[in-house]
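Because discrete structure vocabularies remain unfamiliar, it helps to consider an illustrative case, giving the amino acid sequence and backbone structure tokens:
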Amino acid sequence: MTLDNIKKIVLVLSGKGGVGKSSITTQLALTLSLQGHSVGVLDVDLTGPSIPRFFGIEQSKVRQAVGGFIPVDVHDAQTLPSRNSNGNTPGQMVGALSCMSLGFLLASRNDAVIWRGPKKTAMVRQFLTDVLWPPLDFLLIDTPPGTSDEHISLLENLLKQTTAPTSPPNQLAGAVVVTTPQAISISDVKKELNFCKKTGIRVLGVVENMAGFVCPNCSECNDIFDRGGGEVMARDFEVPFLGSVPIDPAFVQLIEEGTRPVYPKGTVIAGKDVSAASNGASNGQANGTTSQLLVDKYRDCSLCPLFDGIVSRVVADIRSRD
């Protein structure tokens, strides 16, 4: 089975669409890579496969080999340039990152996927059995909203494969659940937490997305959608609260245009100064060297230190149960 190469599998779930599951999945993957882990991302949002666009590889196509599909590489394991202007700090080692999505199999990104439940179920099953992943520390699975056919098929096949005698222990580590602060989102995401409880999926934690707005013209971060609803929900369900993530236009520009994030002097997010001057190098450049890799540019994003803390908590929790 192709999942045998994978040490840990983490689902990214939400009961509501539009809360930013793919954005959270992308940043979890980039942060795990920055922490030195080898990472794969499987996109099972069949009617809205957005992972290829998030990683800037939507023009890529998967290759077929004997036994299945070869996922698309985002970047190999390598050392990123030092961010210290004096050159005395060694570069950062990053783990390899690869992706698989239905988006790679469509003739055009504008093609609509109009499938009935049985065909969706068959596609999910094929993704879990026919993708030839390299050895991975983590596989993140970006799911569609709700508790539909895809979810049921995904869990049935995952539980079957991850409980096989040849599978690594505790291979299905659990789920990260994404919400936004508004009450209407919270009410839908509560259903997802109940879904996890009924199906026996451990909730690794709740992330409250869109909790604030990082102004690109000043150093303020304002709570335009309020905040705190995700934390209250996590406390009510007795699951970990991993943190609040604001909307950052610089991250949007990074994904859409490939522009390296830059912030006004004095911009502080979660107690950390994220302006260029605080990094010891202007605009992410050091010693005349730059990298065009998404993972390198992401290091200058205000959200990177937030996700470093979120991922560190999740990884520590997973390891504590081995």
Q: What stands out?
A: The first strand starts at residue 6 and ends at 13. The chain has one domain: 2-320.
